[in-house]
């Protein structure tokens, strides 16, 4: 059908829906529209609800074009995407998003670190707003859907609602979060951590530099942010700013695709902790020092790596995971006993207490191993130890109802990767919508989600935002 004709039909449906109910009560058509979207009509016939639902149309071609255009703002050639915080390409990508927000009629605001907010005012602007959003930074040689689907998709969700004639009661905001990826300054979810009141982070950023010794604030200023001062306390959100936050994201895992399910409804986000460990021994010549006389820092590291696996398995839960992703030996020569070893350990769980027990066991093992092997445990540093987050029941219900209203299959699931939602959960009730992606690939150029799957996600997001905005 031609878009103009479709548009006409939609308007007609709204006219019929609105006028059919106007006679029955004293509410205006806007209120009726909101009732349609709530899924729980008060004075309403059911046919109008389904008419409204079928009026939710995603402009899939335009959305795909936007995803492609954004992916061209990259420091590496297609199909890979590389977009690092506060670089020229990041600034251009931000401009692209702000433009789209304005074209959708949103009022745009930026904070001192470049979190971007596009607001669609509700007719009760004093109420806490409903928010949605994600990130557009991309690690080196990654793909074009991670994060992007939750930003461009959120703007399209607003367009979908506007085209359908919906008027929000609570304002709806689209947020672009600064630096979800830790690429440049080693800090993941920098923007959302600060929004959630990261005072320690705000302080640490004063002395943070990147791999080229460029300071965080110098980089931020060169991108047009943090102009006036180094004080980031005005970035912190007041609790109660948002009544709900919902993020749309590719699954980054294979489950939805394998099971042929359209929508994943996230019930919890596993939270990571990471630990740095260093052992030091005397080293020595690989031939000359006899076995009884050694204190090998490399073997201590090897033993600890196996202990990490053992402690994780001891938890008895499939949700506990642990990884030694970095293990470096010094001096790193075949004929030299390692005098120093360096490990970095990542461990995650959806149960914080269980995850913390694992960390404690790793700490005890590290010191026991050091004692038994006569090496020094020169560092045991917990880099971050974030609590997991649970999705809010009422938001899970809104996402489930929206999927059902749209006849889309859905599944409750856990997010094992972390997202800005993990930190937004500290200041707002939170929920997440996953869509399938090819083989679960992410953080590489082969990352892919079909435009049909993306459109389904956008529709569920639109309907969920609509329901939440009238609550
Ligand atoms: C980094 O920059 C600071 C300030 O400009 C300077 O004092 C310091 O020596 C530099 N560090 C390195 C490793 O280059
Ligand atoms: C969902 O399926 C029902 C029953 O087949 C149908 O009446 C309804 O129009 C469908 N809704 C949407 C939004 O496609
Ligand atoms: Zn992401």
Automatic annotation (TrEMBL):
Its cofactor is Ni(2+); Mn(2+); Co(2+). Keywords: Endoplasmic reticulum, Hydrolase, Manganese, Metal-binding, Purine metabolism, Signal. Pathway: Nitrogen metabolism; (S)-allantoin degradation; glyoxylate from (S)-ureidoglycolate: step 1/1. GO terms for molecular function: hydrolase activity, acting on carbon-nitrogen (but not peptide) bonds, in linear amidines; metal ion binding; ureidoglycolate hydrolase activity. Residues 1-23 form the signal peptide. Belongs to the peptidase M20 family. It is found in: Endoplasmic reticulum. This is Ureidoglycolate hydrolase.
């Amino acid at each position: 059908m031609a878009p103009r004709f479709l548009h006409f039909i939609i308007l007609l449906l709204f006219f019929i829906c609105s006028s059919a109910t106007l006679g029955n009560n004293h509410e205006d058509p806007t209120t009726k529209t909101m009732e349609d979207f709530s899924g729980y009509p008060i004075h309403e016939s059911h046919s109008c609800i389904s008419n409204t639902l079928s009026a939710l149309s995603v402009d899939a071609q335009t959305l795909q074009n936007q995803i492609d255009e954004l992916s061209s703002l990259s420091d590496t050639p297609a199909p890979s995407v590389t977009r690092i915080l506060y670089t020229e390409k990041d600034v251009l990508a931000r401009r692209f998003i702000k433009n789209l927000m304005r074209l959708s009629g949103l009022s745009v605001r930026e904070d001192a670190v470049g979190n971007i907010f596009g607001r669609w005012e509700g007719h009760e602007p004093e109420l806490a707003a409903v928010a949605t959003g994600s990130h557009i930074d991309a690690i080196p040689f990654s793909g074009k859907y991670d994060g992007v689907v939750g930003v461009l998709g959120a703007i399209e969700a607003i367009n979908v609602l506007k085209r359908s004639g919906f008027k929000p009661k609570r304002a709806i905001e689209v947020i672009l979060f600064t630096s979800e990826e830790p690429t440049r300054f080693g800090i993941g979810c920098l923007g959302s951590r600060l929004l959630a009141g990261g005072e320690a982070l705000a302080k640490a950023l004063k002395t943070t530099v990147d791999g080229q010794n460029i300071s965080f604030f110098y980089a931020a200023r060169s991108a047009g942010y943090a102009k006036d001062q180094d004080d980031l306390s005005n970035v912190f959100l007041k609790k109660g700013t948002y009544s709900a936050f919902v993020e749309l994201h590719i699954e980054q895992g294979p489950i939805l695709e394998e099971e042929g399910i359209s929508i994943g409804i996230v019930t919890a986000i596993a939270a990571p902790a990471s630990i740095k460990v260093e052992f030091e021994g005397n080293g020595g010549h690989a031939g000359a020092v006899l076995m009884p006389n050694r204190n090998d820092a490399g073997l201590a590291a090897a033993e600890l790596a196996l202990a990490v696996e053992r402690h994780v398995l001891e938890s008895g839960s499939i949700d506990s995971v642990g990884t030694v992703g970095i293990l470096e030996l010094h001096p790193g020569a075949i004929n030299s006993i390692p005098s120093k070893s360096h490990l970095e350990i990542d461990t995650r769980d959806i149960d914080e207490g269980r995850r913390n027990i694992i960390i404690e066991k790793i700490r005890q093992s590290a010191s026991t191993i050091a004692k038994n092997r006569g090496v020094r445990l020169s560092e045991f540093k917990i880099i971050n130890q974030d609590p997991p987050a649970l999705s809010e029941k009422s938001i899970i219900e809104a996402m489930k109802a929206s999927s059902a209203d749209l006849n889309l299959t859905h599944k409750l699931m856990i997010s094992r990767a972390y997202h800005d939602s993990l930190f937004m959960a500290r200041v707002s009730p939170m929920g997440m919508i996953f869509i399938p992606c090819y083989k679960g690939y992410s953080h590489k150029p082969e990352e892919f989600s079909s435009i049909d799957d993306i459109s389904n996600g956008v529709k569920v997001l639109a309907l969920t935002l609509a329901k939440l905005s009238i609550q």
